[in-house]
Amino acid sequence: MSTPDLTTAPQAIDPTFENVWDELVWRGLVHVSTDQEALRALLAGDPITYYCGFDPTAASLHLGNLVQLLTLRRIQLAGHKPLGLVGGSTGLIGDPRPTAERTLNTRETVEDWVGRLRAQVERYLSFEGENAARIVNNLDWTAPLSAIDFLREIGKYFRVGTMLKKDAVAARLNSDEGISYTEFSYQILQGMDFLELYRQYDCVLQTGGSDQWGNLTSGTELIRRAEGASVHAIGTPLITNSDGTKFGKSEGNAIWLDADMCSPYRMYQFWLSTADSDVIERLKVFTFLTRSEIEQYAELVAAEPFRRAAQKRLALEVVATVHGVEATAAVIAASEALFGQGDLTTLDAETLRTALEELPNATVGAGTPVVEALVSTGLVSSLSEARRAITQGGVTLDGERVDDETATVHGTLPGGVSVLRRGKKTLAGLFIG
User: Fold this and answer.
1) Can you give 140-188 as a three-state secondary structure string?
2) How many CA atoms lie within 13 A of 168 on its CB side?
3) Which residues pair with 395 in a beta bridge?
């Protein structure tokens, strides 16, 4: 089996840029922001403290959140001090969705998810050196605050007319669902987070998705009113595919960063399937490859798109960042072996099993005839079609061609599984049970 090159790009600022701001702009990470010249000067100067918040509305972060995590890391690499905020209080509320009210999760669920998300955020930042990261939880300053104090100390700075103009709020007001006071108040809570972090840590920059721009500017405006200070915000673009479809979805399922919710194999295949028209922009956003390296991949996409060199590098870089090099090596070995470029018997059992779960599959008993297994997995529609496929030499089991119509399945691969193939690229997994 060939050994793939698992050399990944070091996490570093590209030295060809004069300023980290210039690199953020080149990578397409600035969709909207406060004063750009002021931001450029701010990021070129002495270390600042900045933050991004993550709400525990699920048990894991997803690829959309990865944009923010990597943006946090890029700015830290330029010498600035990141705060990763996990929203123990805002997670109890939920920011307004454009279409309908959120279902409120229990306090116990949110607390559990806070712990999970905190562990994920910590993986992407450095907690060493003079610009070591900190993790904060907004429940720490929200929980002790009474409703009266909240209204007197924070609510007085907000103007209802301005709040009504926020995109998410306006969309809900114009819907049949309407919006509750609970979700309407979310922007005040997020604004208060920025104010609290400004007061505690002299935090002067918040990053987030451009769909959160109304919430980001709630914080900048609150600090201006309450403290008379000017602070900044950067809204990264929402990532979409070139055909306009929503990014980060795979057959209706989000690509989660938790391996238990989305296997490294599925994540790897997701990136491999990136369209040629999207792959260079994805390399800019999701990897630490330099401008020069990405330009070389752009040339390869134009000259030799059939090699999919850019997609393979993208998949390697992102999966290694999220799951580590060792897991990525196992995934690449499984991917190559499943498609006839390696030895199936040498694969890691867990990786092989998770890979087969992503394929058409069936659970069959030991000794099941291959013809029946072909039908069970949907590779053929009938026993007669299965026999014809075997007669024509188009069926393999565990990498070996099946010549005998009476051949049976015994799960001889690691983990007690088998792999059926019809033709060159049509695969299915068999679990023995």
Assistant:
1) HHHCCCCHHHHHHHCHHHCCHHHHHCCHHHHHHHCCCCCCCHHHHCHHH
2) 22
3) 422
How far is Cα 117 from Cα 408, in angstroms, rounded to an integer? 46
Token pair of 348, please? 């890691």
Q: Can you give the pLDDT at residue 34?
A: 98
Give CA separation, 48 vs 51, 228, 275, 391, in Å.
10, 18, 38, 70
SS3 267: helix
Residue 97, classified by CB atoms within 10 Å of its CB into exposed (0-12), middle (13-18) or buried (19+), is middle
Look up residue 409 and give its DSSP letter.
E
What percent of the chain shows pLDDT beyond 70?
Answer: 98
Cα-Cα-Cα-Cα dihedral sign, residues 85, 86, 89, 91: positive
Collapsed DSSP state (helix, strand, coil) of residue 7: coil
Provide the 10 A C-beta neighbour count for residue 342: 20
Residue 196 to residue 126: CA distance in whole angstroms? 23
| Structure token digits, residue 165 | 């103009």
Largest CA distance in the chain: 82
Report how far residue 135's alpha carbon sits from residue 53's, in angstroms, rounded to the nearest whole number.
Answer: 10
**400 token code pair:** 């070996």
Mean pLDDT for the chain? 93
Query: Are the CB atoms for 325 and 8 separated by under 8 Å?
Result: yes
Mean pLDDT check: name the lowest of 48-52, 297-301, 307-311, 421-425: 421-425
- φ and ψ at residue 256, rounded to 5 degrees: -80, 155
Cα 263 to Cα 115: distance, rounded to the nearest angstrom = 21
Is residue 156 within 8 Å of 222, Cβ to Cβ?
no
Q: How far apart (Å, rounded) are the C-alpha atoms in residues 228 and 224?
A: 4
| pTM given for the model | 0.92
What count of other Cβ atoms lies within 10 Å of the Cβ of residue 85? 26
> In this structure, are residues 154 and 163 in contact, taking their beta carbons and an 8 Å threshold?
no
- Residue 286's identity, in one-letter code, is F
The predicted model gives 154-174 an average pLDDT of 88
- pLDDT value at residue 3: 46
**Both structure tokens of 307:** 């090699």
Q: Work out the number of other CB atoms within 10 angstroms of the CB of residue 411.
A: 18
d(CA 319, CA 355): 14
Asked if residue 399 lies in contact with residue 413, where contact means CB atoms within 8 angstroms, the answer is: no
Helices 276-286 and 291-303: crossing angle in degrees, nearest 10, is: 170
Q: What are the pLDDT digits (tens) for 114-147?
A: 999 999 999 999 999 999 999 999 999 999 999 9
Instruction: Give the start-end residues of each E strand in 3-161.
Output: 32-33, 49-54, 81-86, 134-137
